[in-house]
Amino acid sequence: MGNEKEHAAENFMVKLIAEELEAVPFERDMCTRFPPEPNGYLHIGSAYAIHTNYSIARRFNGTFHLRFDDTNPLKENIEYVNAIIEDIKWLGYDPGEHIYYGSDYSDKIYNAAVTLIKQGKAYVCDLSPEEVTEYRGTLTEPGKNSPYRDRPAEENLELFAKMKNGDYPASSKVLRAKIDMASPNINLRDPVIYRIIHAEHYRTGNGWCIYPMYDFAHPIQDMIEGITYSLCSIEFKDHRPLYDWVLRELEIKEPPRQREFGRLSLTGVVTSKRFLRQLVEEGLVDGWDDPRLPTIRGLRRRGFTPESIRSFIEEIGSIRTQSTVHISLLDHCLRQDLKEKTISVMAVLQPLKVVITNYPENETELLLIENNSENESLGKREVPFSRTIYIERDDFTEQPPKGFHRLSPGAEVRLKGAYFIKCEEVMKDPNTGEITELHCTYDPITKSGTGFTGRKVKGTIHWVSATHATKADIHLYEKLLLEQDIPDEDGADWTDVVNPDSLVTVTDGLLEPFARHARPEQKFQFFRHGYFSVDHKFTTSERLVFNRIVPLKDSWNKSLK
Which intervals hold domain Glutamyl/glutaminyl-tRNA synthetase class Ib catalytic (predicted)? Predict the structure, then answer.
């Protein structure tokens, strides 16, 4: 059953279900499901829904199903199916053998519709889509009956069979449930439950040309699989009466129970598939796995771990309504997960050359530096040190402001894991005045790890040996959207919303040689710069590419302690 923290996100749902099971228990075991449409990629909001269903199943010693709601061949693709399965397993919510497809139940769903027609609870309607909408009414005005509502059952059965056989063009007829056109719940105003679509299905081919609507297929699929609790996000609450109506009219014994939880949103993040597709198709990002997107693929490529995402969801806790969580919580969970896992390496992104004039020429010294100052079990590594090194350009200034404890003329600092150095001379380009290199001296007795207790320095800076440095491209990310509010209509001009500086690429960043053989998706902490991951998409055998996952929360000198 796991620990209490593991189930924190389901507290209110756990209590609700426990009370219901005590009052009216099921004769079958607990079974939940996550039913994605295979028409896009999972995102961080999907992860919350998956976690809720998966954890409830575990909490009550049941099973968790992944079921694809693949009832619209116009939008679905096997590419999405494979991606969803891979992403769910990567997140740690592996359904094992319980992977199902709604399209496999086509015959049973069709037969259920036939049953409703025979009972006088469904009819074939010839109204156009626009007329169906017009007849439905509004939130304040009741709808009006379709002129085809009172067709005899025999005629409806014949027409429905012809729909199935492909005798009619798309959108010319639909099958509607006969409920109540005056219902205050607009979802009960004779909803469409089947429509005609002439398109090849990725799984069933051309075997069908009629497809059930989600609200009709969903409860029947749940019934077929023995689902006990259909846990949905809050926007489906108004659809619950239709879910119950379908199961009641089909006289299902021990019908599944639909219950709703809050929908998760993040500040400054767009999760709508429609909007994400616009960003991808308009070339504003480099694909569905762009590290700036909240898709699971994007988060993974950026460097987020499944543990950090699960921790984030658990930290949010129980959500009953639409809730917006600040993105900084996700960053915090990532840092907490990585801080004792990752090896800390030195990387110089804006190099400034330093020549240590009193260090022997052509000599290389191997220094032992701890891999992680918070986790001794990660051990130490050898880092080469030589006469010429590179430091960060902003670690030096000729006119240091108050509180500046890094390198300046005549000042002394410690090189991380190495020696004290003092700046003796500043070399500049005679034409531009730009600083080109520094000449420094080192004090051999100040070597780290030797127990030196003499004079103290306030600043420690990182460096890489010029001879041994590994080059890499570094992707630095900022938020993708400039504003919290995003466009809410199709065809919006995203160029006014997308941050033009959301991706900055540093070419030829210099890393210590330890990083040379980094594996795709391997994580590191770069001193002072943050946590980084090897980009599996653009890294090649000749070129390393790193994505910054998140900056360091602590100040630069605390990370160098």
Answer: 31-339
What are the pLDDT digits (tens) for 281-339?
889 999 999 999 999 999 999 999 999 999 999 988 778 877 888 888 999 999 999 99
What does the angle CA 51 – CA 56 – CA 60 come to, to the nearest 5 degrees? 150
Task: Tell me which of 6, 20, 37, 249 is the catalytic residue.
Answer: 37
CB 423 within 8 A of CB 411: yes
Q: Lay out the sheet containing 174-177: strands in order across.
A: 122-125, 174-177, 192-196, 210-212
Dihedral angle sign, alpha carbons of residues 241, 242, 246, 252: negative
**Bridge partner list, 414:** 420, 460
DSSP letter string, 253-281? SS--EEEEEPPEEETT----HHHHHHHHH
Q: What pLDDT sits at residue 558?
A: 38
Q: Per residue in 197-247, pLDDT tens?
A: 999 999 999 999 999 999 999 999 999 999 999 999 999 999 999 999 999
Selected from 1.10.10.10, 1.20.1250.20, 2.40.240.10, 2.30.40.10, the CATH number assigned to the domain covering 343-559 reads: 2.40.240.10
Please state which CATH class domain 5-261 belongs to: alpha beta
Bridge partners (DSSP) listed for residue 174 = 125, 195
**What counts of helices (H) and strands (E) characterise the chain?**
13, 27
Any idea where the domains of the chain sit in the sequence? 5-261, 343-559
- How does pLDDT run across 460-494, given as a tens digit for each residue? 999 999 999 999 999 999 888 886 556 555 555 76
Active site residue 273: yes
* Contact of 69 with 214, CB cutoff 8 Å: yes
Cα distance between residue 208 and residue 276, in whole Å: 30
Rounded to 10°, the helix 214-225/106-118 angle is 110
DSSP annotation of 235 reads G
- Catalytic (active site) residue 263: yes
Q: Residue 215's CB: how many other CB atoms inside 10 A?
A: 18
Place of tokens 């330890």: 514
Active site residue 558: no
Q: Annotated catalytic residue: which of 121, 144, 149, 273?
A: 273
**Residue among 173, 263, 381, 523 flagged as catalytic:** 263
